[in-house]
Amino acid sequence: MEPRGVMGGIYRLTEWIMRLSVINLLWILCGAPFFYFIFVSFLTLLNGSVQEEDLLGFVQTACLTLGVLAPFTFFPSTAAMFTVARKWVTGEADVPLFKTFFKGYKDNFKQSMLGGIIYTVLIVVLIVDYYFFIGSENGRILSGIFIGLIVLALVSLLNFFSMLVHYHMKTLQLIKNSLLITIGKPLRSITAAVLVAFILFLSFTQFTWLLLFFTGSMIAAVAYWNFNLIYMKLQQQIEDMKKNEEEEVEIAAEMDREDLVKSDYKETK
């Protein structure tokens, strides 16, 4: 029996700490090549092993390597993490963590990999365009536009993972709908961007231990929660439309009933 009162609150808190940390560690483990390369690259820069004249080449090589690794490691691992986050947000908090995670990894591996390749190419192209135009005559305006597009692509990536674990759709359809939702629901997109940015800010500047235990799983939970609000609202709109259509059909049927038409009108027909 679950304890009540203060002890019950502490018990539930420790349960969520365990859930979030386990899923975050599984996420890092399954995306190990990607995260290991980030860690090594960061240490290399931190130790000053790269000369200033070689810095740009080092960063470009690192980004290219990460771009190759991401679709095959980071994206499937993140899809698995979102599978668990979906269960949490929809009220299934006590799901078996390992089983749910690895089932999500297996079921979504192919689509997450294909989506990862497309998103990686898209984001790389936007970043290259940003650096290309930043030195041009109207560089400040154009670079600002491309920063906005990069943020838009990253937010739509969160929606992509949420839709991937929620719908049975083809990969291109998932990407298209993710972009449409991101553009069509600007307030929700801004909310997602702000919340994720806040988590990342705390993780990189204040509490770096969050990166190992909580950052990824918290972002997944927040992102899916935000998507679920969009989904629930769309479902409500669809139900309202169906209800209105049914009412219109009923009204039309009533108006078409001959037995309700006044007799003097019938005689003049």
Walk me through this protein's architecture.
This protein has one domain. The chain is an all-alpha fold. The radius of gyration is 25 Å and the shape is globular. Helix content is 82%, strand content 0%. InterPro entries: DUF624 (IPR006938). Pfam families: DUF624. This is DUF624 domain-containing protein. It comes from Paenibacillus montaniterrae.
Structural class: mainly alpha
Find the count of extended strands (DSSP E, 2+ residues): 0
What's the tally of helices? Answer: 11
Please report the distance between the alpha carbons of the first and last residues.
75 Å
Radius of gyration equals 25 Å
Q: Main sheet, how many strands, which sense, barrel?
A: none
Stretches with pLDDT under 50, minimum 5 residues: none
Number of domains: 1
Portion in beta strands: under 5%
Helix-residue proportion = over 70%
Mean pLDDT: 87
Shape: globular
* H-E order: HHHHHHHHHHH
Transmembrane segments: 21-43, 55-77, 113-133, 145-167, 179-201, 207-227
InterPro entries: DUF624
Protein name: DUF624 domain-containing protein
Keywords: Membrane, Transmembrane, Transmembrane helix
What is the topology?
Blueprint: H1 5-30, H2 32-46, H3 55-69, H4 74-89, H5 97-133, H6 139-164, H7 171-184, H8 186-206, H9 210-213, H10 215-255, H11 263-268
Helix pairs in contact: 1-4, 1-10, 2-3, 4-5, 4-10, 5-6, 6-7, 6-10, 8-10
Provide keyphrases for this structure.
269 residues; mainly alpha; single chain
Concise structural overview:
The chain has 11 helices and no strands. It is an all-alpha fold.
